[in-house]
Design brief:
Layout lengths: L7 H27 L1 E5 L2 E4 L3 H7 L2 H31 L4 H16 L2 H11 L6 H8 L10 H29 L3 H9 L4 H12 L1 H16 L3 H6 L11 H11 L3 H32 L1
Antiparallel strand pairs: 1-2
Helix pairs in contact: 1-13, 2-13, 3-7, 3-10, 4-7, 7-10, 10-13, 12-13
Protein backbone atom coordinates (compact mmCIF):
# COMPACT_ATOMS: atom_id res chain seq x y z
CA UNK A 1 0.00 0.00 0.00
CA UNK A 2 1.37 3.36 -1.06
CA UNK A 3 1.81 5.88 1.76
CA UNK A 4 1.13 9.51 0.84
CA UNK A 5 3.79 12.02 1.74
CA UNK A 6 2.13 15.19 3.05
CA UNK A 7 5.33 16.96 4.06
CA UNK A 8 4.94 19.33 1.10
CA UNK A 9 2.06 20.99 2.95
CA UNK A 10 4.57 22.37 5.48
CA UNK A 11 6.10 24.43 2.66
CA UNK A 12 2.70 25.94 1.86
CA UNK A 13 1.75 26.51 5.52
CA UNK A 14 3.69 29.83 6.01
CA UNK A 15 2.05 31.35 2.94
CA UNK A 16 -1.36 30.10 4.05
CA UNK A 17 -0.91 31.60 7.52
CA UNK A 18 0.27 34.91 6.07
CA UNK A 19 -2.68 35.15 3.69
CA UNK A 20 -5.11 34.12 6.43
CA UNK A 21 -3.67 36.71 8.82
CA UNK A 22 -3.79 39.49 6.23
CA UNK A 23 -7.42 38.63 5.47
CA UNK A 24 -8.76 37.90 8.97
CA UNK A 25 -7.38 41.00 10.74
CA UNK A 26 -8.97 43.54 8.33
CA UNK A 27 -12.19 41.52 8.35
CA UNK A 28 -12.39 41.57 12.15
CA UNK A 29 -11.68 45.32 12.12
CA UNK A 30 -14.59 45.86 9.75
CA UNK A 31 -16.85 43.70 11.93
CA UNK A 32 -15.77 45.72 14.97
CA UNK A 33 -16.55 49.02 13.24
CA UNK A 34 -19.95 47.74 12.08
CA UNK A 35 -21.03 47.19 15.70
CA UNK A 36 -19.89 50.53 17.14
CA UNK A 37 -20.54 54.23 16.75
CA UNK A 38 -17.06 55.74 16.45
CA UNK A 39 -16.50 59.46 17.07
CA UNK A 40 -12.74 59.28 17.63
CA UNK A 41 -10.18 56.83 18.98
CA UNK A 42 -11.35 57.33 22.57
CA UNK A 43 -15.12 57.65 22.00
CA UNK A 44 -16.79 54.45 20.86
CA UNK A 45 -20.26 53.21 21.69
CA UNK A 46 -21.66 49.75 21.04
CA UNK A 47 -24.76 49.96 18.84
CA UNK A 48 -25.29 46.29 17.97
CA UNK A 49 -27.13 45.77 14.69
CA UNK A 50 -28.28 49.39 14.31
CA UNK A 51 -25.95 50.10 11.40
CA UNK A 52 -27.11 46.97 9.59
CA UNK A 53 -30.75 47.99 9.95
CA UNK A 54 -29.91 51.48 8.73
CA UNK A 55 -27.96 50.21 5.73
CA UNK A 56 -30.57 47.63 4.72
CA UNK A 57 -33.22 50.36 4.78
CA UNK A 58 -31.02 52.81 2.83
CA UNK A 59 -32.47 53.58 -0.60
CA UNK A 60 -28.96 54.18 -1.95
CA UNK A 61 -28.10 50.54 -1.28
CA UNK A 62 -31.26 49.36 -3.03
CA UNK A 63 -30.64 51.56 -6.07
CA UNK A 64 -26.94 50.65 -6.31
CA UNK A 65 -27.70 46.95 -5.85
CA UNK A 66 -30.27 47.04 -8.65
CA UNK A 67 -27.84 48.85 -10.97
CA UNK A 68 -25.12 46.38 -10.03
CA UNK A 69 -27.20 43.29 -10.83
CA UNK A 70 -28.40 44.79 -14.12
CA UNK A 71 -24.84 45.67 -15.08
CA UNK A 72 -23.46 42.22 -14.17
CA UNK A 73 -26.31 40.50 -16.05
CA UNK A 74 -25.64 42.61 -19.16
CA UNK A 75 -21.92 41.85 -18.95
CA UNK A 76 -22.53 38.09 -18.75
CA UNK A 77 -25.17 38.07 -21.50
CA UNK A 78 -22.76 39.83 -23.87
CA UNK A 79 -19.32 38.51 -22.96
CA UNK A 80 -20.07 34.79 -22.53
CA UNK A 81 -21.64 34.19 -26.00
CA UNK A 82 -19.13 36.57 -27.60
CA UNK A 83 -16.20 34.82 -25.94
CA UNK A 84 -17.46 31.42 -27.09
CA UNK A 85 -17.86 32.71 -30.64
CA UNK A 86 -14.35 34.18 -30.71
CA UNK A 87 -12.87 30.95 -29.33
CA UNK A 88 -14.62 28.90 -32.02
CA UNK A 89 -13.23 31.17 -34.76
CA UNK A 90 -9.65 31.18 -33.47
CA UNK A 91 -7.04 29.17 -35.42
CA UNK A 92 -5.76 26.06 -33.69
CA UNK A 93 -2.31 25.66 -35.22
CA UNK A 94 0.58 27.62 -36.67
CA UNK A 95 1.95 31.11 -36.16
CA UNK A 96 -1.47 32.69 -36.64
CA UNK A 97 -2.76 30.89 -33.53
CA UNK A 98 0.09 32.33 -31.45
CA UNK A 99 -0.47 35.80 -32.89
CA UNK A 100 -4.19 35.71 -32.11
CA UNK A 101 -3.50 34.59 -28.53
CA UNK A 102 -1.06 37.49 -28.04
CA UNK A 103 -3.50 40.04 -29.47
CA UNK A 104 -6.33 38.73 -27.26
CA UNK A 105 -4.15 38.95 -24.16
CA UNK A 106 -3.26 42.63 -24.70
CA UNK A 107 -6.46 44.16 -23.17
CA UNK A 108 -6.04 41.98 -20.07
CA UNK A 109 -2.60 43.49 -19.42
CA UNK A 110 -3.82 47.09 -19.33
CA UNK A 111 -4.42 48.51 -15.81
CA UNK A 112 -8.01 49.35 -14.91
CA UNK A 113 -7.41 53.08 -14.45
CA UNK A 114 -5.68 53.25 -17.84
CA UNK A 115 -8.67 51.48 -19.45
CA UNK A 116 -10.99 54.12 -18.02
CA UNK A 117 -8.74 56.92 -19.24
CA UNK A 118 -8.50 55.40 -22.74
CA UNK A 119 -12.27 55.22 -23.11
CA UNK A 120 -12.77 58.62 -21.50
CA UNK A 121 -10.68 60.15 -24.29
CA UNK A 122 -12.01 57.79 -26.96
CA UNK A 123 -15.61 58.80 -26.25
CA UNK A 124 -15.11 62.57 -26.13
CA UNK A 125 -16.96 64.44 -28.86
CA UNK A 126 -14.16 66.97 -29.44
CA UNK A 127 -11.01 64.80 -29.59
CA UNK A 128 -12.18 61.20 -29.19
CA UNK A 129 -12.39 59.02 -32.30
CA UNK A 130 -15.64 57.31 -31.30
CA UNK A 131 -17.43 60.38 -29.94
CA UNK A 132 -16.36 62.63 -32.81
CA UNK A 133 -17.32 60.03 -35.45
CA UNK A 134 -20.75 59.35 -33.94
CA UNK A 135 -21.59 63.04 -33.74
CA UNK A 136 -20.40 63.61 -37.32
CA UNK A 137 -22.75 60.82 -38.41
CA UNK A 138 -25.64 62.68 -36.83
CA UNK A 139 -25.86 60.49 -33.71
CA UNK A 140 -26.14 62.60 -30.58
CA UNK A 141 -23.63 61.01 -28.22
CA UNK A 142 -22.44 62.35 -24.88
CA UNK A 143 -21.59 59.87 -22.15
CA UNK A 144 -21.12 62.68 -19.62
CA UNK A 145 -24.68 64.00 -19.96
CA UNK A 146 -26.82 61.15 -21.31
CA UNK A 147 -27.64 58.15 -19.10
CA UNK A 148 -28.06 55.71 -22.01
CA UNK A 149 -24.77 56.79 -23.57
CA UNK A 150 -22.99 56.44 -20.22
CA UNK A 151 -24.31 52.92 -19.69
CA UNK A 152 -23.51 51.87 -23.27
CA UNK A 153 -19.96 53.24 -22.98
CA UNK A 154 -19.30 51.51 -19.65
CA UNK A 155 -20.62 48.20 -21.03
CA UNK A 156 -18.64 48.46 -24.28
CA UNK A 157 -15.52 49.31 -22.27
CA UNK A 158 -15.99 46.23 -20.08
CA UNK A 159 -16.66 44.01 -23.10
CA UNK A 160 -13.49 45.28 -24.78
CA UNK A 161 -11.45 44.75 -21.63
CA UNK A 162 -12.66 41.35 -20.44
CA UNK A 163 -14.13 39.34 -23.32
CA UNK A 164 -10.60 38.14 -24.04
CA UNK A 165 -10.57 36.31 -20.71
CA UNK A 166 -13.72 34.36 -21.62
CA UNK A 167 -12.37 33.66 -25.10
CA UNK A 168 -9.05 32.34 -23.78
CA UNK A 169 -10.78 30.12 -21.22
CA UNK A 170 -13.11 28.71 -23.88
CA UNK A 171 -10.20 28.26 -26.28
CA UNK A 172 -8.30 26.19 -23.73
CA UNK A 173 -11.44 24.13 -23.09
CA UNK A 174 -11.93 23.48 -26.81
CA UNK A 175 -8.29 22.40 -27.22
CA UNK A 176 -8.77 19.89 -24.38
CA UNK A 177 -11.53 18.01 -26.22
CA UNK A 178 -10.12 14.72 -27.59
CA UNK A 179 -10.03 14.49 -31.38
CA UNK A 180 -11.93 11.19 -31.37
CA UNK A 181 -15.16 13.09 -30.77
CA UNK A 182 -14.62 15.14 -33.92
CA UNK A 183 -13.69 12.01 -35.87
CA UNK A 184 -16.95 10.35 -34.82
CA UNK A 185 -18.86 13.49 -35.81
CA UNK A 186 -17.24 13.49 -39.25
CA UNK A 187 -18.16 9.82 -39.72
CA UNK A 188 -21.77 10.63 -38.78
CA UNK A 189 -21.65 13.71 -41.04
CA UNK A 190 -22.80 15.92 -38.22
CA UNK A 191 -23.30 19.60 -38.96
CA UNK A 192 -21.24 22.32 -37.33
CA UNK A 193 -24.21 23.21 -35.12
CA UNK A 194 -24.63 19.57 -34.06
CA UNK A 195 -20.93 19.36 -33.18
CA UNK A 196 -21.19 22.52 -31.10
CA UNK A 197 -24.41 21.48 -29.37
CA UNK A 198 -23.59 17.86 -28.58
CA UNK A 199 -19.78 17.88 -28.25
CA UNK A 200 -18.24 21.30 -27.68
CA UNK A 201 -20.84 22.96 -25.45
CA UNK A 202 -21.20 20.01 -23.01
CA UNK A 203 -17.40 19.73 -22.74
CA UNK A 204 -17.15 23.47 -22.09
CA UNK A 205 -19.65 23.40 -19.23
CA UNK A 206 -17.06 23.45 -16.44
CA UNK A 207 -14.97 26.10 -18.18
CA UNK A 208 -18.04 28.27 -18.75
CA UNK A 209 -19.02 28.02 -15.09
CA UNK A 210 -15.55 29.26 -14.13
CA UNK A 211 -15.80 32.08 -16.70
CA UNK A 212 -19.25 33.10 -15.46
CA UNK A 213 -18.11 33.06 -11.83
CA UNK A 214 -14.98 35.11 -12.53
CA UNK A 215 -16.79 37.64 -14.67
CA UNK A 216 -19.67 37.98 -12.22
CA UNK A 217 -17.36 38.55 -9.26
CA UNK A 218 -15.24 41.06 -11.14
CA UNK A 219 -18.18 42.96 -12.65
CA UNK A 220 -19.99 42.99 -9.31
CA UNK A 221 -16.96 44.63 -7.67
CA UNK A 222 -16.21 47.06 -10.51
CA UNK A 223 -15.03 50.47 -9.38
CA UNK A 224 -12.08 52.00 -11.21
CA UNK A 225 -13.23 51.96 -14.84
CA UNK A 226 -16.66 53.63 -14.42
CA UNK A 227 -15.26 56.00 -11.77
CA UNK A 228 -12.56 57.23 -14.16
CA UNK A 229 -14.90 57.31 -17.16
CA UNK A 230 -18.08 58.87 -15.75
CA UNK A 231 -17.42 59.53 -12.07
CA UNK A 232 -20.62 57.62 -11.36
CA UNK A 233 -22.72 59.98 -13.46
CA UNK A 234 -24.59 61.48 -15.03
CA UNK A 235 -26.26 61.89 -11.66
CA UNK A 236 -26.04 58.44 -10.08
CA UNK A 237 -26.69 56.50 -13.29
CA UNK A 238 -23.40 54.56 -13.19
CA UNK A 239 -22.83 54.65 -9.43
CA UNK A 240 -22.43 51.01 -8.50
CA UNK A 241 -22.12 49.37 -5.07
CA UNK A 242 -18.38 49.89 -4.72
CA UNK A 243 -18.68 53.62 -5.47
CA UNK A 244 -21.60 54.02 -3.04
CA UNK A 245 -19.51 52.29 -0.37
CA UNK A 246 -16.52 54.55 -1.09
CA UNK A 247 -18.67 57.68 -0.88
CA UNK A 248 -20.09 56.52 2.44
CA UNK A 249 -16.73 55.54 3.97
CA UNK A 250 -14.42 58.26 2.62
CA UNK A 251 -16.69 61.05 1.41
CA UNK A 252 -19.00 61.12 4.45
CA UNK A 253 -16.66 59.30 6.87
CA UNK A 254 -19.53 57.16 8.19
CA UNK A 255 -17.31 54.29 9.26
CA UNK A 256 -20.00 52.30 11.08
CA UNK A 257 -22.58 52.23 8.25
CA UNK A 258 -19.80 51.78 5.69
CA UNK A 259 -18.46 48.75 7.58
CA UNK A 260 -21.95 47.23 7.76
CA UNK A 261 -22.43 48.03 4.06
CA UNK A 262 -19.14 46.33 3.14
CA UNK A 263 -20.07 43.17 5.06
CA UNK A 264 -23.46 42.99 3.33
CA UNK A 265 -21.62 43.50 0.03
CA UNK A 266 -19.20 40.70 0.94
CA UNK A 267 -22.01 38.31 1.88
CA UNK A 268 -23.81 38.90 -1.42
CA UNK A 269 -20.67 38.05 -3.39
CA UNK A 270 -19.96 35.06 -1.13
CA UNK A 271 -23.50 33.74 -1.59
CA UNK A 272 -23.41 33.99 -5.38
CA UNK A 273 -19.91 32.47 -5.51
CA UNK A 274 -21.15 29.57 -3.35
CA UNK A 275 -23.99 28.99 -5.81
CA UNK A 276 -21.52 28.84 -8.70
CA UNK A 277 -19.18 26.55 -6.74
CA UNK A 278 -22.06 24.21 -5.90
CA UNK A 279 -23.06 24.10 -9.56
CA UNK A 280 -19.46 23.32 -10.59
CA UNK A 281 -19.03 20.50 -8.08
CA UNK A 282 -22.45 19.07 -8.96
CA UNK A 283 -21.47 19.15 -12.64
CA UNK A 284 -18.19 17.32 -11.93
CA UNK A 285 -20.02 14.57 -10.01
CA UNK A 286 -22.43 13.99 -12.89
CA UNK A 287 -19.69 13.69 -15.52
Amino acid sequence: MKVQNNKAWFLVLPVFLLVAFSAIVPMMTVVNYSLQDIFDQSSRYFVGADWYRQVLADQRLHDSLLRQFIYSACVLLIEIPLGIGIALCMPTKGKMASLVLIVLAIPLLIPWNVVGTIWQIFGRADIGLMGYTLNKLGISYNYAANTGDAWATVLIMDVWHWTSLVALLCYSGLRAIPDVYYQAARIDRASAWAVFRHIQLPKLKSVLLIAVMLRFMDSFMIYTEPFVLTGGGPGNATTFLSQTLTQMAIGQFDLGPAAAFSLVYFLIILLVSWVFYTAMTHNDKNR
